[in-house]
Automatic annotation (TrEMBL):
Gene3D superfamilies in the record: MFS general substrate transporter like domains
Listed GO CC annotations: membrane
Keyword Transmembrane helix belongs to the record: yes
Record PROSITE patterns: MFS (PS50850)
Signal sequence annotation: none
Name of the protein in its database record: Major facilitator transporter
Keywords assigned: Membrane, Transmembrane, Transmembrane helix, Transport
Pfam families: MFS_1
Species this chain originates from: Caballeronia arvi
Membrane topology: Multi-pass membrane protein
Ranges that cross the membrane: 14-31, 51-72, 84-102, 108-130, 142-168, 174-197, 245-266, 286-304, 311-330, 336-357, 369-391, 397-419
Location in the cell: Membrane
Amino acid sequence: MSSSSALSSAVRKIKWHVLPLFVVMFIVNYIDRVNIGFVRQHLSADLGIGAAAYGLGAGLFFVSYAVFEVPSNMLMQRFGAKAWLTRIMITWGLAATGMAFVQGETSFYAMRLLLGAAEAGFFPGVVFYFTQWLPRDERGKAMAVFLSGSALASVFSGPISGGLMLIQGGGLHGWQWMFIIEGLASVVLAGFVWFWLDSKPRDAKWLTRDEQEAIVGEIEDEQRRRDAAHVKKPSSWSLLRDPQILIFCLIYFSVSLTIYGATFWLPSIIRKMGHLNDFQVGLFNSIPWLISIVAMYLFAALAARFKFQQAWVACVLLIAAGGMYAAGLGGPVSSFIAICFAAIGFKAASSLFWPIPQGYLDARIAAPVLALINSIGNLGGFVAPATFGFLEQKTGSITGGLTGLAAMSVLAAGVVFLARVAPRERPGGAALRAGVQK
């Protein structure tokens, strides 16, 4: 088998072997993270947790997530993806199950912090996994497939969570059964991950020796070409002083603001549309995310065909801005329609963004820096729900929050043109690369 044929065969096998599993993992991960959006009304009625406390608790998840994200990803490099991703799934599943037993605001805050710490490292761990298993040209498409898991989770989480909340018995409320069943599902899935996943291509018995050597050789060649353009391996601390990292964090922060602002408050907007039960709210909640899945694949295909990653990210951010601004202008029905439009933009922006820092970063220190970008960016998941909760409790409206989200998306659309998709070469780098390739 020729090296090119072996590489193509390896890439095809890797995608079929790991991508479906990662999508399923992301679905259960996302459900356990955002399912509190469906129980807000019940938390208020049963535990006295008001809008401001709910918003703060929803956002506190992202504080501990940010604190533990980089250390978790560094530990994954030490212990391997198989062991560490399995550990992450078990601990987040147990923490998600524990949400069923909160008694008030304090325990609610504590469990959300614990859940964030448990989940930390999952997303950037998978992103780093792709850098070790797939050539650069394949990572963007793999990311689009992986990120579809969050959109699929948003589609499925409504009907699933709404249906589980109809369960009664055992001295527990329906919302408690929802947390228990969805959390334990993650623990069960962790067992499958342990038996299915491999840490490195050379550990994969489902690849032939030629396929293993081809994929490892391609990844190593990419690193050699990068080495030719750099004097030495950059340190993680030096990259913290790189303005590009700040730009990446700002862009992803803006994307996360909009995603989680919509995620945690959309069920409340839907409830205002009429007399709907939990299951019906869940069905309506799935509509914007179903639309966004189509948009993610469409824009990923357009970006792959018509090169200019920054322009595509800016385009979808402006779509998100228009939708979120319009959501604050009318009643519940028009707001719901506007968020359906906004979802086209902010979910596509999430998938189109990641190939930019992946292409810029040196693979040798990519893991902790990707984790840093993800953790700081995800602090938008703290700011958005906490701000929305405060605004609703103080003013009875979240219109100001929606306008703010629109403004941030417009700002990010401009900033994205400052982001580089490849590192700036030192003088003579092109000639050195040519020598490497000979």
